[in-house]
Amino acid sequence: MAFMPWSDRFITGLAQIDEQHHWLVDQTNRLYDEITHESPDPAAIHQILEGLVEYTFNHFIVEEELFARHAYPENEAHKAEHDRFTKLAAEVLLKHEGGDNVSREILEFLKEWLKHHILEVDMAYVPFLKAHDEAS
Ligand SMILES: [Fe+2]
Ligand SMILES: [Fe+2]
Q1: Domain spans of the chain?
Q2: CA of 78 to the centre of ligand 2 (A)
Q3: DSSP characters for 81-119?
Q4: Which ligand neighbours the alpha carbon of 81 most closely?
Q5: Which pLDDT score, from 0 to 100, does residue 108 have?
Q6: Cα torsion for 47, 49, 54, 55, to the nearest 10°?
Q7: What pLDDT is attached to residue 31?
Q8: Residue 69 Cα, ligand 1 centroid: separation in angstroms?
């Protein structure tokens, strides 16, 4: 059983978004596997973490560009959640670079944040974007 199993509940029906969310879930699982390995490899952890931070940042930009293009009314609040998370993720990366281990608690937080964000916050834009003909 994966740390964060992919679920049909995560599917928005917007192909590009779903592909990116799936990637984020996959990499969260990879990160979990790496930190719970009997001999964790800090370089591998760093590589996954760095990839996750960068990809997340780019994913947020993709969503925010869609919001801007269609004048999504919840843009501000949604972007504020993205910004808070980006800041936190960058802090985790910095701490890891400074020699701190990525803890299971951090991973749990990451998983719960991602779940909440996709299921509640991202899902909230789906009917709006679909009504504005945004199929991908
Ligand atoms: Fe998202
Ligand atoms: Fe989002």
Answers
A1: 16-32+41-131
A2: 6
A3: HHHHHHHHHHHHHHHHHTTPPPPHHHHHHHHHHHHHIII
A4: 2
A5: 96
A6: 100
A7: 96
A8: 16
pLDDT per residue over 57-67, tens digit each? 999 999 999 99
Considering the domain 16-32+41-131 in this protein, what is its CATH number?
1.20.120.50
- Report the C-alpha gap between 132 and 40 in whole angstroms: 46
Query: Torsion angle, CA of 77/93/47/111, rounded to 10 degrees?
Result: -50
The 10s digit of each residue's pLDDT in 18-53 is 999 999 999 999 999 999 999 999 999 999 999 999
Span from the CA of 120 to the centroid of ligand 2 (angstroms): 9
Q: What is the pTM of this model?
A: 0.94
Residue keyed to tokens 């709006």:
128
